[in-house]
Structure formats: C-alpha cells, structure tokens
Amino acid sequence: MNRKKLIVLIAAVTVVTAPSTVTVWADNTTTSETANGYIESELDNNTPLYEPDESLYMSVPTAYPENGIADIRADYPANRDQNPYGTCWAFSSTGLAEFDMINDGLADKDTVDFSEAQLAYFAYNFVTDPLGGTEGDKAKYNNKLASTIYQNRGGNFEYALRRYSQWIGLVNESDVPYSIFKNDTNASIDSKYAYGYDRAHLQNAYEINIKQQPQQVKEMIREHGAVGAMYYDRNAGWGFYGDDAYTYYDADRVGGGHAVMIVGWDDNFSKDNFRETNRPANNGAWLVRNSWGDYKDYFWMSYDTVSLADTAWVFDVTGSDNYDNNYQLDGGINTYKVSNYTTMANVFTVGEKEGVTYEKLKAVSLSMTRESNVGYKIQVYTDLTNLKDPTSGTLQESATTEGTSAFAGFYTIPLKEAVNLKPGSSFSVVVTLDKAALDHESAYKEARGDTVIWDCEVNRENSRSFYKYGTKFYNITYPNGDDGNLCIKAFTTNCTDVIDTPDVPDTPDVPDTPDVPNTPDKISPIGKEKTGVLKGTDGAWYYFKDGEIDTKCNDVLKNSNGWWVIRNGKVDFNYNGIASNANGDWYCQNGKVNFNANDILYTPQGWYYFRSGKVQKGKETVQRNSNGWWYIGTDGKVDSNKNTVARNSNGWWVIRKGKVDFNYNGIASNANGDWYCQNGKVNFNAKDVLYTPQGWYYFRSGKVQKGQETVQRNSNGWWYIGTDGKVDFNKNTVAQNSNGWWVIRNGKVDFNYNGIASNANGDWYCQNGKVNFNVNDVLYTPQGWYYFRGGKVQKGKETVQRNSNGWWYIGTDGKVDFSYNGIASNSYGSWYCKCGKVDFDYSGKYKDSTGKTYSIVNGRVE
Length: 862
Known about the structure:
7-stranded mixed sheet, 7-stranded antiparallel sheet, 39% strand
C-alpha cells in the first residue's frame, strides 16, 4: 500500500472510532510525538539484577543471527500488522509466544498464529475462570463512554503476563481474528473464547535488565527466539541505510510508548549506519521486529538508545496439554509486592468432575515480579479440616520443594513429587520465601467525572489467601482497600483410574504375576473392533490392533492400568531397564513404567536421571542420589568420564570423573571459562587476584579474566595480569588498567620507579611507577635526557627540540646527544649544534664532514 494512502486510512479510522483522539497507531507518522500503544508499567524500569550476573553468559557471539534479518525472515512468521490500533503490546506479546513455540519445536512458522484481539479484549473485559477461583475479580471497559477506546488505550507486557498466567490468551487467530474490530470497535467477543480455546500455556516469564545485563538478554534471545521491549518512538530517531533496512536512535524519552520484539544483535553494527544528524557515540545495535506490517518490519536500534526501557521480557510457553486445571485466586491485571510477610498460603477446593476419580497436583506457580534471587520452600497440605488454617491437613512431605529463582518474574515450579487430590477435598499451598517478594493482585479504576470507564475490581473478601504472623495464619482481606489475593497457583491433571492404585509402590515389583493388569473382567472379548493392550484368550497380555496381535509392535503403550513394555506384540513382564516410545525414555520394572522414579537410578543401559519415570534429556545438570552428586549429560545419563564445571539450581559444581568433587579447591574449567572453586563449588563472589594451586589469577564474578593484559590489585599490591589471566612474576613491562599505565617489575607495580620504562608500544616517562602522558618536553631521566611527546620517547628521526635550558639535538634514539657537533633540522629550520645544543651566538661558516659549507647567522642556517 502507498505510504501516503496508509496514513490517510489511519486518520480516517481514528475519526470514525474515536473522534476526540489523535492518531494512535504506534508508528509516529504524524508531526506530533504521540505514538500511543504502550502503557509504561512499574515493571519496565529499575529491573532487579540476577546474580551471578554476566559471568555465565560470556559465550554468546558478537552477532546473532549469523545472516541478520534474512535468517529471521526464513525461520519465523511474516510480520503482523497492528494497523490501525494502538495494540503493539498485544502483537509483541503473542509474537514472543510464537517465537518460543517455534524454538521449542512445538509449532511451525507457517501455521502458528495467536490472536491479538482475544488478548486485548479479555485484558479489558474479564471472565471468571472455569473453576470459579477468580470469582469477584472483574474488569469491564466501557468503549461507548470512553474518549479513548481500549484498542487505542494500549497495554503492556505485564497485562499479557497476567492474562497468560490465568490461561486467558494464546488462542488461534482463526478463532478470534483481528478483523473483528474492523467495522465495530465496540464488538463483543463471546466469553467462551476466554478459556478452553487456548493452544499454549505460559510456563515462566522473566524480566531482565537489558541496560546492565545485555549478555543475559542475548542468551535468552538465542533460547526463546525473542525478548519484548518498550521504547518511546519519535520521528527524529529514524534513519535508513541500504537494502531496505532502517535504524533507530534517540537521546531522550520524547515520543509515544511502543512495544517491539528484539530478535538479534550485532556488537559491531557501525554507528555510521545511523542518520548523520542523529548518530550514537558507539557501535552496536539490537535487531528489532516491529508490528507495522511490511513497513519498517525490522530495524536496528542502537545500544545507546536512551528511551529503551530497562526491562527485556521473556515469555516461556509450552503446549496447552501440560495440565488440565489451573487453581487460582488472582484474576486481576495489576499487582504489587507483599512487603511485610514471607510465609503465605492459598487454599483451594478440588472440583468434582464426571469421570475424574482424582486429580494429581504436579506444579505450583509463584509471581515474584519485583525481586530476583528469591529462595523458596513450597509445602502442600491435603484434606484440610479447617479452611481458615492452611496447615490443618496432612503435610505431603515428599512433595516439599525448595529452590531459588533467577530473574524477577513468574515461575511454574514442578513439585518434587506429585500429590493426589480427592474430589471435593481442600488443600493448601504454603510458600516460605527468604525475603519479601510474592505478588498480590490489585484493583484499578478509571473514570471521567462520575462516569466509570474501566472498573478493574479484585475480590478482597474470599478468605482463601493467608499470611503467617508469629505462629498463626491470618486471612488476607482488604474490605476497604484496593488489594486482593495472593499470586499463587496450583496446576493439576485429571485422573480416571482408582486413586489408591498409583500409591501402591510394591505393585510393579511382583515379577511372578503375569496378570499384573488386574481388571481382566472389564475387558470385552477380543473382537475386530478392539485395539490396545489387552488380555488374550491364553491369559497373556498383548497389543492388539483391530483384534489381531501386532507381532511387529515394540513400544511402550498404555491401558487403564498403566504403561507397558511391548516386545514383538506381547507385554514383557520380565523387562527391567529403559524402554522408549514417542514421548520419551522410561524407567521400567517388570514390564511397567514406574512413574514414581525420581532419582539417579541404575539400569542395564547405565545410570540415568529420572523425573516422574522419564529420562531427563536436553540439558546438562548436576543431580544427587544416595551415592553422591553426579553430572548428567544432555542424554540424561551419568557420564563417569566427564571433567567439567556444570550447573544445577543450587550452583555450579566441579565434576571429576562424572561426580562432584567437594574436596576440590582451585581452578576448574568448562566451555564458558575457568572458574574459582572452593569445596567443589564455583564461588561467584571471587573478585580479586587470588592464589590457586595453579598459580595466582585475576577473577571477576568467579571467572578467570582472559584475553587482555591488565593491572589489578589485591591486599599484597598491584599485579601484572597476562592474557591468560595469570600473574606473571617474570614480567617487566608497562601495562594498563582503567587507572592508567604502570611500571611492572617482576610482575608487580613498582611505585618507587622514576625514569623510562618500556613495553611493546615504546619507551615511556614514568613517575612513581605510572606513565605521565602529559609530558611533552626534553626531560632528564636516570637513563639520560630524552625528548617526549605524550609521555613517549620520540624515536626514528633526528630533530632539534627545546626545553627551558635551550634547544637540543635529538638522535634517532630520542636521546640528547651531548657529543654532537653539526647541522640538525626541525620544522623551524636547520641549526648549528655544538655539544648537542644549538649555539645561537655563532655566526659564520661551517663545513660538515662531506665538505658542504653552511652559512650560519645566530645559530641558524641561512
């Protein structure tokens, strides 16, 4: 579409839908600086830092992806178009989910397309969740009375985080198309689309400080495909350089808020690529994906852009089949941190559903969007006898889960062991944190005079959220305030078998019971219509396909009694070890998958790490069993030959022959660098020149600092650090740190040194061990009189230079030659020198050694 026509179309739509507003499409194409579409959140700035900071993220490339925009266009969907509304926040949020699904292999770039209209509508118009936990939470936006329709009022990544975590959003574009607003901005979306049509679930959301921890942002882009960001768009910030590529840089926050996705970077992107009249001071830029269709679909934003907000947002999503039920009390769209308490709880009642015999509680989510590095302990109490006391039931000790969060954000935390829940019973999730961090929902109201435009009320009196004070729990109720329930959720799956069956640990250990599936009476006689793991007429168990035993079947398949190892069409009750199907590799005992296997266990195939019976693949980790802590490779197997440094949720550990060596002290290495280790663990607080059995090394955040000569201090002095990060006690040179250049003698700064010291770059004038770059003169040193410029001896050319004592002949070694008699030149002319000094008293003739005669007047050659 012609660009001028596009601007006219935007203006026309605005006049029809919101006569009292200005153009609000997030591209600032008018002469104003108001590009609305993003409502800046408290969470967009002052982002908490995650420690350890950059030390674990130094292996990222200087540019990504390799071929820039071309690679992104090849691997991800075509750009979406928010025109003509201020919905950039919804487009960026759905885009983050789409990119993450593609990166995880859960979606295809040509088919994945989540609805922005559904997210925007239900952000402003709330529907109670199917389990009724958010009853009393409301949101209703009155478009007809508002001066700005909600489509143009905008939103932010926090809005998306809240709705996604409530399982609102991430439905297909085909279910709720963006065109629904084309002819009627007041159009309602059927409430059925709020829940039940979702195609993905939010697992985690992270907030990363892009200004202070850019390496972590880059690592997340590689892992999840993109991060979300906000900046204040203005016309003056734009530039253009070849191949349909735009640039953006601003030095202030004037303009309208606009949400985008950052999908790559180039540390060497030249500052000269930006507009000449608006050029940053440094090289480097983020590759940004826009939501204006083909116009400025991708552009390069300078690292120096001032209006770029602190927070980069990461949405980690997965398929919607991971859990069946989301028990929650917080349906609000705004939150604040609980500041006074660290032990809190939510109480839930299990629903009663036809055909569901019990539910299995598998995970809990915590929202901690204002704090990073939070230590947590999660406890589950079942069968509560008093709904006002979260601890009045049975503590499921085996499910107690402890850990530490990384970034500020939203976390879905699998329980150490799943918990069975009876329909109609009540249970609690009790959370203890090591600092105040948990969020609670908060109300919001927007009015024009006496007319309420947006009423976002929260339930303040449902008596299901609690805080602990002293030894007792008390209801969190706010009858006269704006605050509501705690942001703790519980995720369950529906089960249809008998609740007692999975709790009998001895059942799979009966090797002499071929009829382990103990419900043969429930199975109809084999017929042509029968397919599955069934009992044959001979009393053995087989996999039948259309009533016939499939002798070619070698798989792990399910019937109502569990999952079974099939070998040549028959259940192999003698099989012990790992067996595989399309869903993964499983720990099997007596032919049956043992989903209670949560350990490093021996199998005939080797030692493997299992969770819920499944080999945990895809990520290096360190896990424990009764024999110690072990390195687990990406194949889920203990590698007894491995020597490295590897990570789990408790830190980074020294691995020697596959096992954590708690006696190790010194430097240990992995692909990311060399690390300072104490008692087998990386100490990220090591920020000094420290002794190790391998020598003295310079560490920052626990990592040996390699690649650059420097001078660093410890309690014993200042030391020369070589490019290998090690103190070189044989080094004699001049070396640099951020405070200057220093004289090194036997590896240490010699603060008593005065004179000339040398390095590969030249010979330098030093005072008290430091190069004085302000020296521009002929000066005395213990080595003699030399001519300095910028503190450096000037070599390679004869010259005549002046100091307060006169004009002196300087030889090619930069030194005053007091034995020199003859003619020498500088930029002012040629001069007669006697004993190395210009003789201004001499007038007459001078014949040099070649026989050439010079006429001298007052020391100068005429």
